[in-house]
Amino acid sequence: MSASASSIRSEDEGPQGTSAASEGTNTVRFSVVHVAAGSGSRLGGSVRKGMVLLDGHPLWWHGARTCAELRPLSQILVLHPEDLLSTRHEPMRAWMLEAGITQAVAGGASRQASVRAGVQALAEDCGEIVLVHDAARPLVLAERVAALLLQLGSADAALLASRVTATVQRVDAAGFLSDTLQRDELRLASTPQGARSDILRSLLERAAEQGRDFTDEAALCRHFGVRVALVEDAASNIKITTQEELSVARTLLETPRVGHGYDIHRLVGGGPLRLGGVDIPVELHLLGHSDGDALLHAVIEALLGAAGLPDIGEHFPDTDSALKGADSRVLLQRTLQELRQRGWAPAQVDCSLIAERPRLGPHKASIKTALCALLDLPPERVAVKARTNEGLDAIGRGEAIAVHVIATLRAQG
User: What is the pTM of this model?
Assistant: First the structure.
């Protein structure tokens, strides 16, 4: 076994109630094969399950990122459907870098075929242990993976598994109860599952030669006579198969996304005045590099802030001659498209217009209607308020209009 200065320490209990994780420090180098090659047909929708977004990142990103926190890590490899690897997906490279993934490989027709392709693609010096984790389990805890690795320091194969807390009944062919199972003898298998790398490579090849296909690595190892140890898993490590389970994961993982936007533009002569994409028929307009729509600029700024993205000045710099006189509605649509690529959509916007002149109260309804259409939000999710600055500073003197916007985002699949 190779040593590493950066190691795993955990005080969690191991299998059979023993304190396996507290008995030492993991010094065994390991690699991770991250399986995200399934179609996810039971989840529904047009997006591959592994690419369904959770808190702004695809499902596969979360488990990979958790494994990447542990040491001594050699390599993380992700398996995607072949057609996904052949298409251009802009955020993919950034997501892989963030998650510590070193390589993406095309998966196979079954889970076992995908794992075999992944193990074959690992480097020869991938370490003594290979962990296999399902992208459909994004909420795995690093401490549980650490306990699994410690167990694999002395076991040839091991898996995370959770206890069964409900009563389990067997039914007969007619659909009637026939037997009550002893739940103390039952466990629910989860992932990661792992084995010594040489053992896993050998067993995957033997299974392929024999035309056998197993549902997971634990079943593979057990079939060929390798004893498999159990490490108790956390209940939160749910497998996302249905929309209901995805909703639970989002409730557990996602934090509110709130952004603030502010903009101010000088008022000059000549009209019309554009706010929220609405042209107000007065002999005034807002001076700006684009169309000067301070309200849409503040909305864009708030949305970008809620998503943790660079500000409007970086997205649409006033040094870009192509943006001279640009329609801010187009800039907003470009912003919304970027948010959609990252799994976000506007949930609510609250806008405050501050102006001494012209009086904006009579125009609030039309501005709100326009914002609802632009953001695809119902009226109860959009607020437009107008107030003066009580005669104070440049706004109070009627020289400028300022806008504050609070925006929240919702996750979309």
Answer: 0.67
